[in-house]
């Protein structure tokens, strides 16, 4: 589909999704949400995509909902319509967090409210040294309805998550790296390139193993559930040609050569 509020490209095995509303720090409206859902669903089901990179154009990653589009919106007057709107926001997190392809956020600037949660829903984050994350919701009389109070405790623990969510204060790049929320801090405006380097590192590993490993990382499952799921996943990998090639490459002292077109 043609996109008006985002840019979506597949480059060298990477699906790159950029929110394209730089004049308002990439705040989203309904159309943006629909396009994000479409692009991420496409990326997760496209055999030519091995990793997904999410970022924003301009100075911001995503400043959350476009407040100028809220007044007079019918879904703010009817609960079932509001639920449909919120589902679109939540489903962006759902696709990033649960989708089979690894996801990386290049946090190039402020990631606020739902924009913060889009970043947290990714498997890894690279942050610009001037960027920050903010759970904005309590500051404007809302709850983190799209996923933040579920995501953040899993990333930093319950006590720290409560501090960050209930104060609604900024988490700068240095603190994010200290907390393990960010893989690294990029300087000189090269955050997207650093994120691409990380994406390429994931892209170049055996794809079936990468995707099944992501699915196995689940803090809610019991060990017995994990071992059964691991057996099923490992059996698929044992019979995968990329596993065979990777092992042969180790034995022969060379880099693996997977049969891919990018």
UniProtKB/TrEMBL annotation:
Gene3D superfamilies: 2-enoyl-CoA Hydratase, Chain A, domain 1. This is Enoyl-CoA hydratase/isomerase. The keyword Isomerase applies. GO terms for biological process: fatty acid beta-oxidation. InterPro entries: ClpP/crotonase-like_dom_sf (IPR029045), Enoyl-CoA_hyd/isom_CS (IPR018376), Enoyl-CoA_hydra/iso (IPR001753). PANTHER family: 1,2-EPOXYPHENYLACETYL-COA ISOMERASE (PTHR11941:SF133), ENOYL-COA HYDRATASE-RELATED (PTHR11941). Keywords: Isomerase. Belongs to the enoyl-CoA hydratase/isomerase family. It comes from Natrialba asiatica (strain ATCC 700177 / DSM 12278 / JCM 9576 / FERM P-10747 / NBRC 102637 / 172P1). The keyword DNA repair does not apply. It comes from the Archaea. GO terms for molecular function: isomerase activity.
């Amino acid at each position: 589909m043609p996109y008006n509020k985002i840019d979506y490209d597949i480059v060298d095995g990477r699906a790159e999704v950029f929110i394209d509303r730089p004049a308002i720090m990439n705040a989203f409206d309904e159309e943006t949400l629909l396009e994000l859902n479409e692009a991420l669903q496409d990326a997760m089901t496209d055999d030519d995509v091995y990793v997904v990179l999410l970022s924003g154009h301009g100075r911001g990653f995503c400043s959350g909902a476009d407040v100028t589009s809220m007044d007079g919106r019918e879904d703010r007057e009817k609960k079932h319509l509001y639920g449909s709107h919120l589902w679109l926001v939540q489903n962006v997190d759902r696709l990033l967090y649960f989708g089979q392809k690894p996801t990386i956020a290049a946090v190039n600037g402020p990631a606020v409210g739902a924009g913060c949660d889009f970043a947290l829903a990714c498997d890894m984050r690279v942050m610009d040294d001037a960027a920050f994350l903010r759970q904005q919701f309590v500051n404007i009389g809302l709850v983190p309805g799209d996923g933040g109070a579920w995501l953040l405790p899993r990333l930093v623990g319950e006590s720290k998550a409560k501090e960050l969510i209930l104060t609604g204060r900024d988490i700068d790049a240095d603190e994010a790296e200290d907390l393990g929320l960010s893989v690294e801090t990029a300087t000189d405006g090269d955050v997207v390139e650093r994120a691409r380097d990380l994406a390429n590192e994931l892209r170049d590993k055996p794809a079936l193993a990468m995707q099944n490993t992501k699915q196995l990382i689940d803090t809610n499952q019991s060990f017995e559930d994990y071992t059964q799921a691991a057996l099923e996943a490992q059996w698929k990998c044992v019979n995968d040609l990329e596993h065979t090639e990777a092992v042969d490459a180790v034995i022969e002292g060379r880099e693996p050569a997977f049969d891919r077109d990018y």
